[in-house]
Write a structure and sequence with these properties.
flat, 7 helices, mainly alpha
């Protein structure tokens, strides 16, 4: 039910993810201008997408994709578009970055880490968490066997998971942020 409800919501992270994946598809099709536009719109709809745009670029570097200079220009183009989309907020608050602040209340690192672990397990379910731990050997073996054929998407997916988890560790507010 959690996936169902959140997949029908028009909250910003769903739009940002859709735009980011559209940019990824255009990158794979070597349409660098459209990739930059869609990734820029992703950044403009949710600022945390800038991290994923850089992870996408890193996956292309790590897999030694051809035309890396065009991919880099696409990433720069997307960051410029994203920055332009935040310009009205920047101007409205008096040419200041205070619109980027957040308030999470007081929480020490132990509380943050405990909330992070608890919410991750709660998000996927205890049974799924235990099953993933037990299946980790098979998952790693499958990754090694399929790396050559799907290296770009595998590296991008791993970087996305690490990035999402790192941001969730910093801001362990809502489970929906893990989608």
């Amino acid at each position: 039910p959690f996936y169902w409800v959140n997949s029908t919501c028009t909250i910003d992270y769903m739009w940002a993810l859709a735009l980011l994946f559209a940019g990824y598809i255009f990158l794979k099709k070597r349409n660098y201008v459209l990739a930059g536009i869609f990734m820029g719109l992703s950044i403009g709809s949710r600022l945390s997408s800038v991290l994923f745009v850089f992870m996408l670029f890193a996956s292309f570097i790590l897999t030694r994709e051809p035309d890396i200079d065009k991919v880099f220009l696409s990433v720069v183009f997307s960051v410029v578009i994203g920055a332009i989309l935040y310009l009205p907020s920047f101007v409205y608050v008096g040419w200041d970055l205070t619109f980027l602040t957040y308030d999470m209340g007081e929480m020490d690192w132990f509380g943050r880490a405990a909330r992070f672990v608890y919410k991750n397990i709660y998000f996927i379910g205890l049974q799924t968490f235990i099953a993933l731990l037990l299946m980790m050997l098979f998952i790693v073996r499958g990754f090694r066997q399929n790396y050559k054929d799907y290296k770009n998407i595998l590296i991008f997916s791993l970087l996305m998971i690490v990035g999402i988890e790192a941001m969730y560790l910093k801001f362990p507010l809502e489970k929906a942020y893990l989608l």
